Amino acid sequence: MSSRSPSTATTACSDSAGSPDLVLLDVFMPRKSGIAALKELLSLDATVPVIVMSGGAPNPAAVKAPAVDHRELAQLLGAVDTIAKPFRAAELGAIVQRHLAPRSYGQTR
Predict the structure, then answer these.
(1) What confidence score (pLDDT) does residue 4 get?
(2) Domain of 49, in residue numbers
(3) In 3D, which of 76, 75, 84 has the Cα closest to residue 54?
(4) Tell me, what CATH number does 16's domain have?
(5) What is the C-alpha separation between 10 and 7, in angstroms, rounded?
(6) What is the pTM of this model?
(7) Per-residue confidence at 94, pLDDT binned at 50, 70, 90?
(8) What are the angstrom distances between the C-alpha of 94 and each of 20, 51, 90, 99, 100?
(9) What are phi and psi for residue 25, nearest 5 degrees?
(10) In the chain, beta strands by DSSP E
(11) Residue pLDDT, tens place only, 29-41
């Protein structure tokens, strides 16, 4: 399943069809922050592995607040891993495989 909207993704995760095997989540998205979506996803199913992607602030010049390490915050909130953008496909693939393997054997994180 693929979703371009955090609302669509969280609705799909709460669907009776079951949880996704893994969620890739960007920190900066339209209409809802990735951090808010992460909290919502994990409140629906705390066992689904969520990998958070972040490249920093969407527009650093527009940000007046102190710098926040979104990847560190995501892990504190329950993301199983994070990856900095830009990344290589092989790097993302290795992270995805690491977190899919336990679920394929009936284990959780």
Answers:
(1) 63
(2) 6-58+68-104
(3) 84
(4) 3.40.50.2300
(5) 5
(6) 0.75
(7) very high
(8) 18, 12, 6, 9, 10
(9) -130, 130
(10) 23-26, 50-54, 81-84
(11) 878 888 999 999 9
Domain membership of residue 72 (yes or no) is: yes
Q: Is residue 63 part of a domain?
A: no
Residue type, 45: D
More confident residue, 20 or 18: 20
Residue 27: inside a domain, yes or no? yes
Name which residue leads in pLDDT, 62 or 24.
24
Quote the number of domains for the chain: 1
Q: Which of 81, 12, 80, 2 is nearest to 44 (CA)?
A: 12
Taking alpha carbons only, the member of 49, 91, 94, 30 closest to residue 38 is: 49
Within a domain: residue 109?
no
